[in-house]
Write a structure and sequence with these properties.
Blueprint lengths: L8 H4 L12 H29 L17 H19 L2 H7 L1 H6 L1 H30 L1 H17 L11 H62 L7 H14 L12
Helix pairs in contact: 2-3, 8-9
GO biological process, one term: chromosome segregation
Keywords: Cell cycle, Cell division, Centromere, Chromosome, Kinetochore, Mitosis, Nucleus
Subcellular location: Chromosome, Centromere, Kinetochore; Nucleus
C-alpha cells in the first residue's frame, strides 16, 4: 500500500522549492489566502447573524444601556469567540485540501476525522481554560474586581493620587499601618500588665496568709509553753506543734504524726 497517497500535499512537495519552477508555492498561497478569506467572511456573516438573532445566538444577552457585563461572562464569551474563529480558520475545505487523496477515496471518513478533531480541540481548550480558572480562582477575583469598579463609580470624592514625592507617598501609605500596629501592641501590653498585676496581688495575698499562719503558730506555741511551765520543747516537739497548727488551719493534711 502506497502511504504517500494519504500524506498532505505539503509533505509530498517538501523536496521541491516553494517558489521554483514546477513548485506549488504560489498555488498553496492562493489556496491559503482564499481559505482564510472564506473563513473570515463566514465568521463575519455568522457574527452578524448572531447579532440579528439576539438572545438565540451565542453572544451574551444585551442588558439595559449603561449596564456593565460581568468580567466572568466576558471571559466565557472570549473563549467561545476564540473557538469559533479557530474552527473557522481551520475549515473543512482547508482540511480536505491538505488530505486530497484521503478525501477522494473516503470522503465520509474524512468528514468524521475532521469532526472528531474539531470536537477534541474544543474540549481540550475548554478544559485548559477551566483548569486555569480553578487554579487562579479567576471567578472570585473577577467578581471582586467588578465589585471594586462598581463601588468606585458610586464615589463622589476624588480618588487618591500620588503627590510625586516618594517620601510623602510612602509615609502616607505606611504611617496608618504602623499606627494600627502600635495600637494593637499597646492593647496587648495593657492586657499583659493587667494579668501581671492580678498575679502580683495573688502572690502578695499568699504571702500575707503565710505570715498570718506563722503568727498564729507562734501564739499557740507560746500559749502551750505557758500552760506547761518548766517544759522547753525540743526541735521535734516544735515541728510537731507547727504541723498541728498548720493542720488546724487547713494548710497541712497529715494523718500520721510520724510523717512529720
Amino acid at each position: 500500500m502506497d502511504t504517500r497517497r494519504f500524506q498532505p500535499e505539503g509533505a509530498r512537495c517538501r523536496g521541491r522549492p516553494i517558489g521554483g519552477p514546477g513548485g506549488r508555492g504560489g498555488r498553496a498561497r492562493q489556496i491559503w489566502r482564499s481559505g482564510f478569506n472564506m473563513a473570515a467572511a463566514r465568521s463575519v456573516n455568522a457574527e452578524s447573524g448572531r447579532e440579528e438573532k439576539g438572545p438565540e445566538g451565542s453572544c451574551p444577552e444585551s442588558g439595559p444601556p449603561g449596564a456593565t457585563i460581568p468580567r466572568v461572562k466576558l471571559l466565557d464569551t472570549l473563549v467561545d469567540t476564540f473557538l469559533q474563529k479557530l474552527v473557522a480558520a481551520g475549515s473543512y475545505q482547508r482540511f480536505t485540501d491538505c488530505y486530497k487523496h484521503l478525501y477522494q477515496l473516503q470522503p465520509e471518513m474524512t468528514q468524521r476525522i475532521y469532526d472528531k478533531l474539531v470536537t477534541q480541540l474544543q474540549t481540550s481548550v475548554r478544559e485548559e481554560i477551566s483548569e486555569i480558572k480553578a487554579e487562579g480562582n479567576l471567578e472570585a477575583v473577577l467578581s471582586s474586581l467588578d465589585k471594586i469598579v462598581q463601588e468606585g463609580k458610586d464615589r463622589t470624592e476624588p480618588a487618591w493620587r500620588p503627590s510625586g514625592i516618594p517620601e510623602e507617598d510612602m509615609r502616607s501609605a505606611l504611617v496608618p499601618y504602623f499606627v494600627q500596629q502600635r495600637d494593637a501592641l499597646q492593647r496587648r501590653v495593657h492586657r499583659q500588665e493587667a494579668e501581671n498585676r492580678q498575679l502580683a496581688e495573688a502572690v502578695l495575698a499568699g504571702r500575707g496568709r503565710v505570715q498570718e499562719l506563722r503568727r498564729q503558730g507562734r501564739a499557740r506555741q507560746q500559749a502551750w509553753q505557758v500552760s506547761v511551765p518548766g517544759m522547753v520543747p525540743g526541735p521535734r516537739d516544735r515541728l510537731l506543734l507547727l504541723g498541728l497548727v498548720l493542720r488546724g488551719c487547713g494548710v497541712l493534711h497529715v494523718t500520721d504524726p510520724q510523717e512529720l
